[in-house]
Amino acid sequence: MLQGFIAILLGLGLMGALAIAMADHLALPLQRLAEAVRNMSAGNFDTRVPAISSGEMRVLEDGFNDMAGHIEEAHRSMQSRIEEATAQLVFQARHDALTGLVNRREFELRLDKALDTVHAGGDEFSVLYIDLDRFKAVNDACGHLAGDELLRQISLLFQGRLREEDTLARLGGDEFGIMLANCSLTKARQVAEDLCALSAEYRFVWQDKIFAIGASIGLAPVTRDVRDVQEIFALSDAACLQAKELGRNQVCELAPATQTDRRRDRGNWASRLASALSEGRLIVEAIPIRALHAGVPGGQIAELSARLNEPGQAPIALSALIDAAERYDMASVFDHHFLETAIRSLARATRQQMGMRCMVPLSRAAIANSKTGDFIASQLEEHGIEGQGLCLMFSEDISTHQTSQLIEFSRRMRELGCQIALTEFGGGVSSFTQLRTLAPSYVRLSLSLTRDIGDGVTSTALLRAILEITAEQDIYSIAEDVDDTPLLEHLRKLGIAYAHGKAVAPREPFDAWFEGAVMRGSRG
């Protein structure tokens, strides 16, 4: 009896030990699998488990490793596609879709970086501003396809004469910019003359027509006296304009001004502006904007622009005026003149219960000066209106370089009832970030997105993406300088909300537009 009991106890002990051993044999592989699953969930897609078990547990280990391998490969493939798409988007944001050259935005960034080096004691450089002389003749005679092909050929022609360290950019339309790095002024002059001669000798052939082209080139040496990128453009653009005025197909040079020159020139500009204002030669213009869909707010809308009529000279356009005004710290003259014109007209329209909106472009100085907001508030109060009809416009360059100032300015303007619009939208990689930080009511699309829309699916795809994102945020899109009806219809079908340009309505003096379109409603 006792021996049987002892045998039973021994048997139970042996079974317990065997059960523990089996539990350990199963528990350890399961623990390894559980740990591997946790690692995979944390994003460690190269996780594997040792395949050292037998039986059903080995099947589980092999199955996990196979599954992990497939997940790792899918993740790697997806990551590669994301990186490729990101690189493509960055490239498109920095380059011109038609020619493949860097665009104006990227050119400005490179100039800014090079100028910082000069200010720090580095090598000076030179900039060429090039305007093709007979591009319009090709466009008018043969159409936009011929004009596009001319731009591509000219781009290749210029590239073939430049060094690898130089930068060639398409600035817009038929205008190009070149940054000649580490280049003496003597050498820069020679390069400019060579390019001028090259463009004069070049012949563009389209079907049965042959065109001589030529180019006017402005040269601006960039020294420590140059304050910023805007001054570089002002100098080189003014030199290019001078080359055109002197007969085209030649090179003109403008050097940076010294502090003494600036004080003298500022006094000259102040006198010219004062005379122009008192004599009514600073003409504020209206660029009518039309809604393209029934579902967007309509009514009479205009963007304000201006020209300066000088005796015996061609009118000076707003872009050149602003360049000069910012160069001599006088931009507030235009800002205040625009704002006074817009708010005075809005007040009159409000009293007559006539709906209108004025889109007013402001300079970078307006954002930097805290008194701009005070001026707008006082003007609205003086005329007894709120700011609902006033939309303040800022370029992407301003919103990129003065973001914190613009955020605060935008907040205050919205408190007054005003709206905000960003211009040149989509031309830089920071555009989508600005939608979140600035919350604009409108974006005026970059010409690089709309002008070359027929060149392929890439620009159209990027434009569609922008329109989808802005629509989700209740932001209205505006296409600028739309000059033909087929393009206007194409942009409408894509979903763009508003447009301006020759296909919509010609620009005209603001007072004439206000009296006709707003007060009498005589324009559609």
TrEMBL record:
PROSITE patterns, sorted: EAL, GGDEF, HAMP
A GO term from the CC aspect: membrane
Record domain GGDEF: where: 123-256
Lineage per the UniProt record: Bacteria, Pseudomonadati, Pseudomonadota, Betaproteobacteria, Rhodocyclales
UniProt xrefs under CDD domains: EAL (cd01948), GGDEF (cd01949), HAMP (cd06225)
GO biological process, one term: signal transduction
Single GO term (MF): catalytic activity
Protein name in the entry: GGDEF domain-containing protein
Domain HAMP stretches: 24-76
Stretches assigned to the EAL domain: 266-521
